[in-house]
Amino acid sequence: MKEQISLGVIIGNRDFFPDRLVAEARADILALFEELNLRPIMLDEYETKLGGVETFQEAQRCAELFRRHHDEIMGVLVVLPNFGDERGIAETLKMAGLNVPVLLQAYPDDLDKLDVARRRDAWCGKISACNNLYQFGIKYTITQQHVIHPLNTAFKQELLDFAAVCRVVKGLRKLRIGAVGARPGSFNTVRYSEKLLQRSGISVVTVDLSAILGTANKLTKDDQVVKNRLDAILAYTPKGRTPDEALIQIAKLDVALHNFMEENALDATAIQCWTSLQQNYGCNVCTSMSIMSENMLPSACEVDVTGTLSMYAMQLASGSPSALVDWNNNYADDDNKCVLFHCGNWAKSFLPDIQISTAPILGTTVGEENTFGALDGRTPASPLTFGRISTDDCKGIIKAYIGEGELTDDPLNTFGNRAVAKINNMQGLMQYVCRNGFEHHVVMNASKTANILKEALENYMGWEVHQHLS
Questions:
Q1: What's one GO BP annotation on this UniProt entry (predicted)?
Q2: Distances from the Cα of 245 to the Cα of 248, 356, 369, angstroms
Q3: In this structure, what CATH number is given to the domain that contains residue 420?
């Protein structure tokens, strides 16, 4: 569920423009925020002239207000009902020290109101405000239309998108990922740099898989905590032909993972599964991972830490679960379609026909009886945002690609978690993925949030982002 977002609001003013424009803007913003379920943190009308910011003293008051709400404010909206004082805006943000996304909105003028008493000149003032923020080194977001009324439908969507950008930035800067076990020896593709992630505020907490399995093996089917988890699993998905013994193993492992996450205040996990779990414990962890992802605690297989990071970023942007998938197969001779697959741990939101099953491919080497816990299900048609975040040690950067397409209902006769994706210029996308050394894993989300992710990851996180455009 999306939390209510608190935004600081700065209403710019300049003394030789009508003061009533500030009062009108304040009324517009209060109405807008109430409609969109956003919480404004702004000066009261009596604290400065009509609650606007122009002088340095007014900037000090606004900055002090923002500092009092430092932990609540996720972004700042700058409103320009007239030209505004660019210094007051920049000084407020500098003194507040929030380091959050900033959106600039400027009111349009009316052609029949360009006399001295009624003109706004916010078109020009916005350029000056941006210039000052640039000089101060403050990152900011601009609207698609240079000037737009805040009650315009298009601006309402832009403000909601900006709120999503704020969610992504705040969430990533404090993200804690649990890496459970070592990456599979044959999967160099999931190697990553903890140091590059930490520089962006992303912490990785590691644990040996043996520690998790040791905790699980100490539990019994009679422990109440195991019974509770088993009930939760059976309420989440049909068990299919999974034997009771395997369900107990899955529940015990789920308890151990849940304890590890709680003890370390983790937001997400990446778990070793191929093939140590099957050989040394006797089941798949996919069901537990699916439940976590559905509950907005994304979990990726094969210790793909940056895959989990990608899942979390998309979840923050859309407010809905993400899934880690393989770019797996061509779809007949259609150059703009492909098959997405995993064996499978996708969130229940993607699998209306979900049931616990086995992992046939793994079963060929470890015995299919040791792979219960994988999920089976087909993802139906839906919107699609896809993408991938990766650390590039050779360049010393974090990089990503993102794009949009759709999931289709095209026929697909196979097992596991599966979907058909349609993406314009798919061949060009695959060229980019391969030439730039990205992983075979990609993340999907049932949304259209590529623009939000690009703004958050590129502008505010400072990462290198490629947006795939058809």
A1: fucose metabolic process
A2: 5, 14, 11
A3: 3.40.275.10
